[in-house]
Amino acid sequence: MERVPILKIGDILLVSIQVDMSDETAVALQEDLAERIVATGCHGVIIDITALDIVDSFVGRMLSTIASISRVLDAETVVVGMRPAVAITLVELGLSLNGIRTALNVERGMELIAIDRADDDHHEEWDDGPVAGATASP
Amino acid sequence: MERVPILKIGDILLVSIQVDMSDETAVALQEDLAERIVATGCHGVIIDITALDIVDSFVGRMLSTIASISRVLDAETVVVGMRPAVAITLVELGLSLNGIRTALNVERGMELIAIDRADDDHHEEWDDGPVAGATASP
C-alpha cells in the first residue's frame, strides 16, 4: 500500500495528494496525520490537491473526515490547489465539502492558518479577561 | 501523463515525488520546474522523496539533471526525506548522486538554502566592492 507523505513546515503539516486514494490509503493517511499532529503539536494541516483531476464523493468525504479529526486535535485544515475544473465538477455533483476551508495555493493556506491562530489567541486572551467572561455567558 | 505538482512556499519551490517516474513525467517535471523558477524567481528547490522505496539510476540521473538545470537558473536544489534503506541501496548500487545536496527533512532543507543565500549575498557584497569593481570592468 502506498502511503501519502506528510511534510512538516514550521507549525504546519503539508500533505500533497497525488495518488488515487483507496480505502486503505485514506485510512492510513488519517491515522498518520492524527499521529503527526499529536507528535508535533502543529496547528495547521494543508492538503494540496493540485494533482487531482477529480474530487469525487469518496475523496470529499476523506477530506471532511481529516478536517474533523484535525479540529478535535486543535488543528485547522485548509485544502489548497483545487483546479477550476474540479471546482465546477464538485458543484455539479452537488458536493459541498462541508466544514472544509479552501485557499488558492499553499502560501495563502498558510496565511489563513496564521490569521486563524492569531484570532484564536486574541479570543483566548479575551476569554481570560473579565469582560469576555460576561459576553460568553448567554 | 501524470504531472508532479510544484508548490511555492516563500522563496522555495517544493516538489514531492510520489509516483513512479517515467521518461515523460521526468522530462515534464524538469520543464515545469525550470519554468516555475524563471516565473517566480525562487532561489531554492526542495525535492522530497519520502514516498520513494528505491532510487535507481534513472531517478538519480533525473535528480542530478534537475539540480544542474536549477543551478544555471540561480537556484539551489536540496533532496530531502531519503529513507535509510534508500541510502543503503544507493551506496550498494554505487550511485553517488553527484552535485546533489541532501537534508533530513523539508525544514532542514529550507535552512540549508537560507544559509546558502546568506553566504551568496555576502560574496555579492564583496563583489560590488571597489576591488571587485575593477575586475568587473573589462
TrEMBL record, chains A, B:
Record PROSITE patterns: STAS (PS50801)
Task: Give start-end ranges for the coiled-coil region(s).
Answer: none
Q: Which InterPro entries match?
A: Bact_StressResp_Reg, STAS_dom, STAS_dom_sf
Residue span, STAS domain: 2-113
* UniProt superkingdom: Bacteria
Q: Which residues cross the membrane?
A: none
Q: What is this protein called?
A: Anti-sigma factor antagonist
Report the source organism.
Micromonospora lutea
